[in-house]
Write a structure and sequence with these properties.
The complex is a heterotrimer of chains A (325), B (696) and C (256).
Chain A: E1 3-8, E2 11-12, E3 15-16, H1 18-34, E4 36-44, E5 59-64, H2 73-87, E6 91-95, H3 98-111, E7 115-125, E8 128-135, E9 140-146, E10 151-155, E11 172-176, E12 187-193, E13 207-211, H4 221-231, E14 234-237, H5 239-243, E15 264-268, H6 274-277, E16 285-290, E17 303-306, H7 309-324
Parallel strand pairs in A: 1-4, 1-6, 4-5, 5-11, 6-10, 7-10, 13-14, 13-15, 15-16, 16-17
Antiparallel strand pairs in A: 2-3, 7-8, 8-9
Helix pairs in contact in A: 2-3, 4-7
Chain B: H1 16-45, H2 57-68, H3 71-74, H4 78-111, H5 120-150, H6 169-199, H7 209-220, H8 225-249, H9 257-267, H10 295-303, H11 315-318, H12 325-341, E1 354-355, E2 358-359, H13 360-364, H14 371-375, H15 382-395, H16 401-413, E3 436-437, E4 445-448, H17 451-455, H18 457-472, E5 477-479, H19 489-494, H20 497-513, E6 518-521, H21 524-533, E7 543-545, H22 546-555, E8 568-571, H23 575-581, H24 585-593, E9 597-598, H25 630-639, E10 646-649, H26 652-664, E11 672-675, H27 676-683, H28 690-695
Chain C: E1 2-7, E2 9-11, E3 33-35, H1 37-53, E4 56-62, H2 68-77, E5 81-86, H3 94-107, E6 112-116, H4 127-135, E7 139-149, E8 154-160, E9 166-172, E10 175-179, H5 191-200, E11 203-207, E12 218-223, E13 232-234, H6 238-251
Parallel strand pairs in C: 1-4, 1-6, 4-5, 5-11, 6-10, 7-10
Antiparallel strand pairs in C: 2-3, 7-8, 8-9
The chains are: A alpha/beta (325), B mainly alpha (696), C alpha/beta (256).
Amino acid sequence: MSISIFVIAEHLEGTLADMTFEMLGKARQLADEHGGMVTAVLAGYNVAQLAEQLGAADALILIEDELLAEFAPQPYQDVISGLIRERAPGLVMVGSTSMGLDLAAALATTLNVPMLSSCIDLSVEDDAYVVTSQLYGGKIMMETAVTAGTAIAQILPGAFRAEDGQRAGTPTLEEIPPGLHPENFRMRFENFIKPEAGDIDITQAPILVSVGRGIQTQENIALAEELAEALGGSVSSSRPIVDQDWLPVTRQVGKSGMSVKPRLYLALGISGAPEHVEGMKNADLIVAVNTDPDAPIFSVAHYGVVADIFDVMPALEERLGERVS
Amino acid sequence: MNGTDIGRSTLIGMPPWAIVLFYVLTAAALAIFTWGIVRLVRKYRMGRRAAGRRPAASELLRTFFRAIGNVTVLRDDLYAGIAHLLVLSGFVVLFIGTLIVLVDRDILRFVLPSLVFWEGDFYLGFSTFMDVFGVILLAGLLMLAVRRAFSRLPQLDYRHSFREEVSRRSMAAGDWVFLGLIFFIVIGGFALEAVRLVAVRPEFEVWSPVGWWASDILRSAGMDAGEASSWYPVFWWTHSAASLAFVAYVPWSKAVHMLLAYVSLAWKDETQNASLPAPPENEAGGYTAPTDLTWLELVGLDACIRCGRCHVRCPSSLAGMPLSPRDVILELRNHANNTLLHLRGNGNGLHRMTGDVIPEQTLWSCISCSNCATHCPVGINHVPLMVQMRRALVSDGSVDEQLQQTLVNLQRCGNAMGQSDRMRAKWTKELPFKIRDARREDVEYLWFVGDNASYDPRVQGYTRITAKLFEAAGLDFGILYEAERNAGNDVRRVGEEGLFEMLAEKNIRAFAKSRFRTIVTTDPHSYNTLKNEYPAFGAEYPVIHYTELLAALIENGHLLPVRRVGGRVTYQDPCYLARYNGLENTPRTLLDYAGVELVEMKRRGRDAWCCGAGGGRLWMEDIPAKDERPAEQRIREAAALDGVDTIVTACPKDLVMFTDAIKNVGLEGKFFVRDIAHYVWEAIEQPIPEHLEKEA
Amino acid sequence: MNILVILKQVPDLVEELEINDDGTDLDRTWMRYIPSEYDEHALEQAILLKEEHGGTVTALCLRIGEVDDTLFTAAARGADRLVRIEGDFEGISSRDAAAVYADHIRRGNYDLVLTGVQAHDDLNGPVGARLAAQLEIPYVGVVSGMHLDPETGVIHLHKEYPGGLLTVIRTELPAVVGIQSAVKPPRYVPIAKIRQASKSAEIGEETAEPQSLTPGYTVRRVFKPEGGGRAEIIDGAPEDIAARLVSIFSEHGLVR
């Protein structure tokens, strides 16, 4: 079967999101293996210059309009659903991201096509797209096959490697008119609210000591800070810690936080919910400490320690101290 | 005055206007006293009329003698107790003496002169008796004054535990006023007597030895009879005015405890801590305003003389958490006075009682160990008060995230850990035998295992040892498997009454479906609620603790200790066994049977020091503490005992807390915590299987 | 201001999930259901809006497992109307569920529908997005804050992006909003209040036949991820663990 995949590119503040490359990389691989075509779809305003980063795609469909400058669900749905209806690709890849979560299911409903979420793997077998979805908090995998017509797959961030999709070169560019009907839109983007700057950038830290619920109290975060200092790294966390206001949102790793790729990710008392894992699974070395031997974090970690973090932290710090002195 | 007759007149040589003035002043003092009492009673009547205990006449009498005998004051502080006993007995005797004079001089003399008795031998004996008790009273006051002025006792440290800005200077001044006023009255009495005996000196008055001796001094200092006579009215008026002032002062000061402590003690419901009272029938289902308190609780607030015994025995207070039972009582008293006396209505005014007057962190700091209530000499029950206020917080949804998660877990899965109820009996899988399902087979003993012993890997090893001991004894026992729910003891103390009732109902339904004779629990907390609180919900079964059952099994020969295990250990009295239910000796007997040498800690039995887990504290986020936490303090205390390397527990929560505390104080590998079952098992010479030993 | 909150029952992940014999679905025989965590945030947000602006909050549940407790809890939190839709809904997809909800909403008079941004069993994507598309009204998901202007019928939604970045999207009502988290975390509801609600609150009952359109895909296999994962487990006393970890760090050139 000759495959035809549309990848809906994501960009924020003039930069393509990693998600875009992750999807493109996988699409490219499938097209290379099975023959066929990968088309990137880029909707926005003044984004044409991003085209040169999309070399992994064979073709690029560019739709530009002032109303598409920043993401708001209705205008994006409007242009993309029209496009899909007209071109009828075999598979449309959308990120399981803030943008994609608003888009994919709506497209599927409007177009009345199948849509599969939480996709962590994708293959082509016997003339069918085979989608593996990770559901139930990562406890159950569901493998589904789509045979006919167009299908939409919502891809989990981190499922595929972004490097595979980062190819220079500009694909064949096709610019199409947006054909928007603004009178129909009952929503519009208003403005950004940016987090307070001034905190460290955890995406740049080579070593992250990351704490989860297991840290128990705000005071204990100081212990992680000490350890991070001994390792020459920074402290990050999972969402509950930020929700408790124990650390600023800039330290949060995961779906609604940062995606990080440090050389070492030391997960302390983090159970490893899928929303967290997608933000750190690409770290070079992952070491997890958790009292629960069944914690999902151990399935992404390279090394696991089933122990109380309050035992391991001081011992580790002491050991590191010995090496220095 | 007739010098040959033994006796004397009062109000001698006073002009009629002075006599009238005296009676007017007396009337005024009594009026102020009565007004003060009426005002208090009115306040108490604004309290809730809870279905309380009505003490029988015999109990009232018994409490009277206990109060007169100073039992509750002597119990925990010998020095203060003796001093207080001296003051109290002196005060009572002098008070009765004054009454006698009053009856004889002011009533009988006019009404039935033939019955006048304050003369002759009685007068002499009376004089001596009064003098002696005056000295006793002074001695007691002196002891108290010395203690207050020179000792640095922590219970006398008035610094506020959760409102640092509050100055307690006026409070400390009030203490001195109380002490000083009595001192002044007694000294003044002796001075008056001395001046009188300088003025007129009948020989029989040597029976007033102190007055006689003092008059000798005055005479040798050069005072003659004429001078004394002119001074006499001054002394008389001073003494009389001070005494009348004191009468008026009583209901307006801490002196009122002499009346209220008795009421508080007599009506005290001793079972109320082990079996908490029902919530008030208001919207919050808890205490939100002073009118929610029962009249007895309001009396208790006023009875508090801030002796600080609770303050120095509260583990949370000593760990530097924002709680002191004393300060809670004093703040509540203030608030009740500010609102009930002045505003009327329940007028919480600008401040909510629960949350503002008593901050949430203060309420959540309580570990329900009841060390405060157990030692309160005036019979205040702090724990129910704390829980009633917590109920109001829970009703508002004001619980911390960790506690909220735990409560949701308990709703959904019936255990605090949030694990599947179907996994409750998973710990039995590693046993070489199957424990019977009490829901399907008749058993003699229903073993109520509890959450920690069932789910916590740190405890499960011991749970299995206990199972093996039961099995080795041939005990006819079973468990409820997934039908068991958290018993709810701590849920109730958190203030989640509805959830407690739900859990209790579920357990009681499971009990009803099963056939058994006796419930045996692992957890002292379960033990307490099953034994003391479930009967009110219709579940009346005999409930025993596993230490009791093990002791019985040894005593009737079903388990045979054949080996002296040896070693020196100390034993941790669980609050809910020792303090709440008086179970102190049985666990110690077990250690004796096992041939283990027991070295006692100073604080044991009803004085035991809590591990800090109770009242749901185990389930909450840590509250910042200025000092070491209770469990860590306890481990240090235990480890300081000569040659002791193990603390033995009979409570899974102790085991969990101490396991952590040992790490925190850096004694891991040097000091150990073990469940008592371990020693029994070793004593019956069943080698502990390796995998169990490893877990244990 | 009439707000509808959709409370979805999802399997309780505390329980071990079982897979059916032919390996194409979960075995739902013994399944225990709880309301989806995101939906509880949606409810809390609805109550917060009501507290601020007045109006009514309706809580809606499809009958999946035991839902009355979920509804009574919603009432105890402050929901004014409770609706339970009866039907054969176990294992229903978000697509088919959206059709049932849409039907209810068309018959009602709602200004705002709040749902959780997703549920852990949404194979067919978030129900809110599907619902809005069916009703052809606006949808914004991943929302963690909002500002409602009841005068103009406009709501300003704070949509979350990674790293704490938010965008504000102005949306006209009626609309469907997918809640990531309420402005304040859901409060605890004491059992006494739930019990009270179960006595005083009434659950309106409706019936619906879920449509059974072909899904357009086939489920080939349902399985659990490899147990234990790939982590190499390090055992021993804390000191030994620390020593081993430091040597691993050293191998990776992370420490000198």
